[in-house]
Amino acid sequence: MGSSGKIYDVIVVGAGHAGCEAALAAARMGCDVLLMMIDLDKVAAMPCSPSIGGTAKGQIVREIDALGGEMARISDRSAIQYKTLNTSKGPAVHATRTQNDKNLYHKAMKAVLEHQDRLDLRQALVESLIVEDGRIRGVVDFTGFVYPGRCVVLTTGTFLSGLVHIGTMQLKAGRTGEFAAYGLAENLRNLGFDLGRMKTGTPPRLHRRSIDFSRFVEHSADETPRPFSFSSRAASTIRMPSYIGHTNARSRKIIIDNLHQSPLYCGTIKGVSARYCPSFEDKAVKFPQRESHHVILEPEGIESEEIYASGLGNSMPIDVQLDFVHSVEGLEEAEIIRPAYAIEYDFVNPLQLQPTLETKRVKGLYMAGQINGTSGYEEAAGQGIWAGINAALSVQGRPPFLLDRSQAYIAVMVDDLVTRGTVEPYRMFTSRAEYRLVMREDNADLRLREIGHGLGLVDEDTVREVRDRKKQIEGEISRIRSAVVKPRDEVNTYLASRGSNTISNGVHLDQLLKRAELDYDVVDALAKAPDPPAPDVARQVEIEIKYEGYIDRQRAEINKFRSLERIRIPDDFDYGAAHGLSNEIREKLSRIRPLSLGQASRIDGITPAAISVLMVSLRKGEARNRSEP
């Protein structure tokens, strides 16, 4: 058995979106990193939708960027369309989404990895982990070659015991045409990990020239988009539209008549499906009252003839897929370049993870992405940077990187996973984030750049720029609050032109800005700053003033939340000695072992009464410790 002569600080297994962020973070923090991938031509692949961001997902991408990650920058380099979602709603839910050239994205990310200092790439299929005395020591590939390492991050995506389904055909694969990792899955079971089974899928890819786009509604991009990354100087200038159409009653009938050929409904597939991204079989069965569903045609690249047919995902045999696709108006002659398919894969119950994403069973072993039961590129990348940072900090003997639910969407996701677990593919939503008004997409850099700088992922010039902008925002808010607008004719003429009530007495400018019908233009019109702020500063000022009451209320809630988070639970706390807890609650607390009273309160089934009992027990323990000599 051969062995690498180099002992790596961090070994990352898998180079999807989680693996790329994990490897780059650890290397940029000064660790020697090995990134291993079954096929290096599939680094940062987009096996499903050729897009980045979206509702809640855009917030995650901006947070990754603010911490010093790469996803947003690569999105800007490969974007072929930008769209800001939810603009009719408040800023808390505004979210950027890019349509991307999937090949450009892959090439750009691979180039970044190849040029990153202290980062080695290797094409290999990892077969097993080396564990000694409960600690990771490295990995072994399918040839038996050993790669020693101090920490390992598993980002295996859908490759653990991956099984592709197209009708009755089954193929052992992590994605169509790629080997699956069956040996590693078995190794994890042998190490005592609790594995489950999940299912996802992808729709067919159609030939562009076989589609009658005149039967679809063109969905145009934003005309003047902001770049995804805070570091990008400008957004991509390429604008490629998407197209929206609909299925019909015939489409549904074809699927219903052939359900016996669907592995999802004939009992072949055992994995739990993604509730929020259902296959068309699920739509047809679970929503019988609906005869029509959206179909969105999205280009896969600038030079590619492949069109991603969102909404037509299924696991039917190819002849049924052809009839199904041809039933859609505008797709009567469409050619399927790549058929739709379903895929089952293993995941590790995330209740077996620490909040750092290190496993409780094996020291130095971290997990990120779909292996933890999540779905989506963005969720994977968020976990990847989180795990990569913590692996690097562990090697360096530094305190762990932990954010709380009031600081980042990524923290909400990690806390949900390690505290509540998941039995279905987890997807991030704004509704999961209790404090979303202060965790907006637009202020991610103001929230997290300083933290990224402390980790060594954000340079001094960048963090200095953020500090300067914070001062400008604070200064402009102070100026606006102190400025008084008097009821002059030109003032009331302006207000009337904006459909706003006129004034008869002097009014502080911030009170005018809080009016729903007015925006920052009222400041420029009635009390312009001597040195007008940049647009991004003006936007922050407007949001902070306009939503001041709601933000203050949310910050008060955050203070209450943090009061419980500050009450730490010792690692060796004996839940059996806490009188008043039911056996069920004792079992849950002993299994999950929450770090704080706050985390304990979020475990499913833990009652307020149980939290009160815990608080009393913790105080008694503190009193005993103080009294002991």
Q: What layout of secondary structure does this protein have?
A:
Blueprint (H helix, E strand, L loop, with lengths): L7 E6 L3 H12 L4 E5 L13 E3 L3 H11 L3 H8 E7 L9 E6 L1 H14 L3 E5 L2 E7 L2 E7 L4 E9 L8 E4 L2 E4 L9 H9 L4 E8 L2 E3 L9 E3 L22 E5 L2 H9 L14 E2 L6 H7 L7 E6 L6 E5 L7 H9 L9 E3 L2 E8 L16 E3 L9 H19 L13 H12 L23 H12 L4 H23 L1 E2 L3 H9 L9 E2 H5 L7 H6 L8 H12 L1 H18 L17 H10 L4 H5 L6 H20 L2
Parallel strand pairs: 1-2, 1-9, 2-6, 9-21, 12-16
Antiparallel strand pairs: 3-5, 4-5, 7-8, 8-9, 10-11, 10-20, 12-20, 13-18, 13-19, 14-15, 15-17, 17-18, 22-23
Helix pairs in contact: 1-9, 2-9, 2-11, 3-4, 6-7, 6-8, 11-12, 12-16
Number of strands: 23
How would you sum up the global shape?
A: globular
The biggest sheet amounts to: 7 strands, mixed
How many helices in DSSP terms?
Answer: 20
Cα-to-Cα separation, first versus last residue: 55 Å
* Global Rg: 26 Å
- Helix content range of the residues, please? 25-40%
Beta fraction: 15-25%
Global mean pLDDT: 95
- Low-confidence stretches at least 5 residues in length (pLDDT < 50)? none
Polypeptide structure, described:
The chain is of the alpha+beta class and 629 residues long. The chain has 20 helices and 23 strands. Strands 1, 2, 6, 7, 8, 9 and 21 form a 7-stranded mixed β-sheet that branches. Helix 1 links the parallel strand 1 and strand 2 (33-37). Helix 3 packs across helix 4 and helix 12 packs across helix 16 (535-546). The longest helix has 23 residues, at 460-482. It is globular. The model has no long low-confidence stretch (mean pLDDT 95).
